[in-house]
Specification:
Elements: E1 10-15, H1 17-25, E2 39-41, H2 48-60, E3 64-70, H3 71-74, H4 78-83, E4 90-94, H5 107-114
Parallel strand pairs: 1-2, 1-3, 3-4
């Protein structure tokens, strides 16, 4: 079981097949008591509604502390990521093999940067 500091807290992944496979091989795969997995493999045929539903489900689960999502998939549900303002679960956008990370598209990073001014780093 992949614990994140606090007993029972999991990592969730919404990503392409390569990303999910990598994390599953790393041991993060888990089923909750209702037999729902903590990951969603997204392909080009996955409807956006399914991605949205999984994201909402991960947000509502008390056993998930962090949601990792490929940035190109996050773009499809950007409105939901922008609406999530609670500290947990934390949502982190990550690159994929075919889509490099672009910090200018990461709304959560931009929100965090907005909390500080240049004077804070002097």
């Amino acid at each position: 079981m992949a614990h994140l500091g606090i007993k029972g807290k999991l990592l969730a992944v919404i990503g392409d097949e390569d990303t999910c496979t990598g994390f599953l091989l790393g041991g993060v795969g888990e089923l909750n008591k209702h037999r729902h997995p903590n990951f969603l493999v997204v392909s080009k045929n996955t409807p956006v509604s399914e991605i949205e539903d999984s994201f909402k489900a991960f947000l509502s689960r008390t056993d998930i502390a962090i949601i990792l999502i490929n940035q190109h998939i996050a773009e499809l549900i950007r409105h939901q990521l922008d609406a999530h303002v609670k500290p947990t679960p934390a949502v982190l956008e990550i690159p994929s093999k075919d889509h490099p990370y672009d910090a200018s598209k990461d709304s959560i990073l931009l929100r965090a940067k907005g909390m500080f001014s240049a004077d804070d780093f002097k």
